[in-house]
Write a structure and sequence with these properties.
The protein is built from 23 helices and two strands. It is mainly alpha-helical. It has a two-stranded antiparallel sheet.
Length: about 475
């Protein structure tokens, strides 16, 4: 382990991140909301910290190794949450303590969308913009952005990219050079954001709300500039734009790139994970809508269709936008929607959850084991489409699932020990670990009622979910620290 190498990268990344606190200054001055100094102080503190970390090792030129990459990613996300909370701490409105500020910043950067704030409609516009920007930066992963920029500073990026994307598709590169891959992903990400903002604006949002909500929609974040979330606009057109871009953002961005480069949509339907993803959303939406009709939840058919489809797509993709309080729906719908977030979106997307490809592989292996009972001597590889999946990948998926369940139970037990009721504890961990946001019980409307211990547990869960567990857990492994 070469601490000086990781220290240099961490300092550079913090200085890079500090510049993201300058756009809110411009927003503050434009709206004259009086919060500009909070972001200036936040920028100064973050840049100074990065500079102090970088200066002692500025001459270190050795390339990153894989272990160094894991350490940089983990340290950077932990540091990012702390320094990302700085403007919220310096701001006079809202008045936040350290725990709440870190919770809000981590929730934004991990695109969870859980919040401890209320009265959003009355907060300074610069604060609202900053929250949305945090989600946008965290959506594709600021490390991927750094992969595209750091080579210009003399720092290699492949190890950072591998550490940031530890899922089943971590070795997939769209272009021969990893920096070009990162740039390609960001071009697609930026393009979707622009089109989403235009869609919201044409649907009736003002320009500020359109930009802010496009950030959180494409990032699958769920933060809003209003307490009522998307329901504030009471517009079928706005709902339709949100549904479309939540669906698109939950797809593997590699497929978007291939479709753009080949000017063809056939690659989507050839991808087993996309077919499973689309089937899940259509089936869930249909089930929710039919149940709402049966319960006579809404008087108008259009309200039933829009609210049913919107909440199904929003929760299943782990976006977390709401048009209504779905926790008050009758029957099993609230719990079913919460369970759908465990699947989440596709690998390589901005969505949370375990990812569709992992659940699909678990299902395929389950089917194989049933068939083996009948034909115990037969060779039956697990396949995705016509391609046999290496047993190493299948084993890794089972390992991920096992660790996921164990961590979920442990963190839920801690929340229960703090006096939280079972429904709230279960949904709080589910909403945090799956990077969803809204939960059930006492956290249906936000996490402000959760005590500080519970909030730190949820912060850990959000980080584990965003980095897909192993990126953080590898740091507590003895093997990782051995020479």
């Amino acid at each position: 382990m070469r601490i000086s190498v990781t220290q240099r990268i961490l300092g550079l990344l913090l200085m890079l991140f500090s510049t993201t606190m300058l756009p809110p200054v411009a927003v503050s001055l434009a709206f004259d909301d009086g919060s500009a100094l909070a972001f200036i102080f936040g920028f100064a503190a973050t840049f100074a910290a990065g500079l102090l970390i970088w200066l002692p090792v500025r001459t270190e030129k050795r390339e990153l190794r894989l272990r160094d990459g894991f350490l940089v990613v983990a340290a950077f996300w932990l540091g990012l949450g702390s320094f990302g909370a700085a403007p919220l701490l310096f701001a006079e409105e809202p008045s936040m303590g350290f725990t709440d500020a870190v919770f809000e910043a981590i929730s934004g950067l991990t695109t969870t969308g859980a919040t401890v704030l209320d009265g959003l409609d009355n907060l300074p516009p610069a604060i609202l913009y900053y929250r949305q920007q945090l989600q946008w930066l965290g959506g594709m992963g600021i490390i991927v952005l750094a992969v595209a920029i750091l080579p210009m500073l003399g720092v290699g990026g492949m190890q950072l990219y591998r550490a940031e994307t530890p899922g089943p598709v971590k070795d997939t590169k769209l272009t021969p050079r990893i920096t070009e891959t990162a740039k390609a992903l960001w071009y697609i990400y930026l393009g979707l954001t622009v089109f989403c903002a235009l869609g919201y604006w044409m649907a009736g949002m003002n320009l500020f709300d359109a930009i802010c909500h496009s950030f959180s929609t494409v990032a699958i974040g769920g933060f809003s500039t209003h307490d009522a979330s998307i329901g504030y606009f009471d517009s079928g057109l706005v709902d339709a734009v949100a549904i479309l871009f939540m669906f698109l953002a939950g797809i593997n961005f590699s497929l978007h790139f291939i479709a753009w480069r080949s000017v063809s949509l056939r690659h989507y339907m050839q991808e087993p994970e996309f077919r499973a993803y689309a089937t899940m959303l259509v089936g869930l939406s249909l089930f929710v809508v039919l149940n709402l009709f049966a319960q006579n939840e809404y008087e108008r058919t259009s309200d039933t269709l829009l609210n049913g489809v919107f909440q199904a797509v929003s929760i299943a993709t782990t976006t977390g936008f709401t048009t209504t309080d779905f926790s008050l729906w009758g029957g099993a719908l609230p719990v079913l929607l919460l369970f759908s977030s465990f699947v989440g979106g596709c690998a390589g997307s901005t969505a949370g959850g375990m990812k569709v490809i992992r659940v699909l592989l678990l299902y395929r292996q389950g089917v194989r084991e049933v068939r083996r009972l009948i034909h115990p001597s037969a060779e039956m590889p697990v396949k995705l489409g016509r391609i046999a999946v290496p047993q190493r990948v299948v084993d890794a998926v089972w390992g991920f699932f096992a660790v996921y369940v164990v961590l979920f139970v442990l963190m839920m037990a801690v929340l229960l020990a703090t006096g939280m009721d079972q429904v709230t504890a279960f949904s709080a961990i589910a909403a945090s670990l799956n990077n969803l946001g809204p939960g059930l019980g006492e956290v249906a409307g936000g996490f402000s009622s959760v005590n500080d211990i519970g909030k730190w547990v949820c912060i850990l869960a959000m980080l584990l979910g965003r980095l897909e567990i192993f990126t953080l857990l590898v740091l507590v492994s003895r093997t990782f620290w051995r020479p």
